[in-house]
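Hi Y.,

Following your request, here is the sequence exactly as I used it, all 355 residues.
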Amino acid sequence: MKHQGDSIRTILVTGGGGFLGKAIVRLLINRGDRVISFSRGYYSELEALGVKQVRGDISNTVAIENAVKGVDTVYHLAAKAGVWGDYKDYYRINTEGTRHVIAACKSCGVFRLIYTSSPSVVFDGEDMEGVDETVPYPGSYHAAYPETKALGEQAVRQAGGRSQMASGRWQGAEKRWQGAWDGLKTIILRPHLIWGPGDSHLVPRILTRAKRLRRIGDGKNMVDVTYIDNAAKAHILAEEALIRQPELSGNVYFISQGKPVSLWKMIDDILHAGRLSPVNRSISPEAAFRIGAVLEWFYKAFALKGEPQMTRFVARELSTSHWFDISAAQRDLGYVPEISTEEGLRRLVEYLKAR
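Below is the corresponding structure, written out as tokens. Let me know if you'd prefer a different format.
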């Protein structure tokens, strides 16, 4: 194993083939690190970068431990995202998978773990304006993704020496998780709405649903977004800060552009980048929530495949403000969003034109 003082480190990125994963891998390669990607698939882009690729499932303890052996830092990005699906599937990947990564780090003597979380773990369905990392976890959730990511985040915080006990129906499970190890240092990042060229989730979701989109509410709600390059750089800065200041271990940091934008203007800007018309129809937040509740019941009752066009979580997410104070990341990590939202949109336009 490499020693902490060595200039060249061996880094494992779980989910290295994803949108954010590839961006982080490129920065690590440019820094001169040896990089291993752990994913379920195989990616030609990573092969071209000279990245060693290990295929496996994050829920397989043997596979993840084999991948972790001999590395100095793990960037844990692998997750099941989305707003709809079986809770057990989300729990297996986002909660149990994260605990497997922690256990592997402990048993293999890994120095650092950088965990990618989400601001949705603290979203309670109401406006969140300028809140910082002291905001508590909510007592209940309207979707499996934020709930299971919150459990994973809790495990990483505890492993790194911090613990903010959560409330709600899964508090008991969190109390039973004991994973702290003095040798492992961790940092948790909560980037909000990552987007940019190459996005495989947010941008395509908006473009493919353009004709069906409805503005929920008066359209004045403000949100944070994060350009892909800024999100990736924040992860590198987190690792470097943890090397300099191991006492930061267990800390959580919001990551964003630092300037909230109008959600619906941002959606219209993305539609414009894709040469599509802006959203021109609307629905009230109350009606959207009721429709989401009915559709969720219908999909569950009849075991329908696919995803409802509206859910309670999406109704709340699209009708409320959620932007965050990133001063802690600026202070502790030296994080600065170098690519502005305007420049990011320009790059997105060029990317979509080329495609």
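Residues 330 and 336 are 6 Å apart (CA to CA).

Thanks again,
Q.
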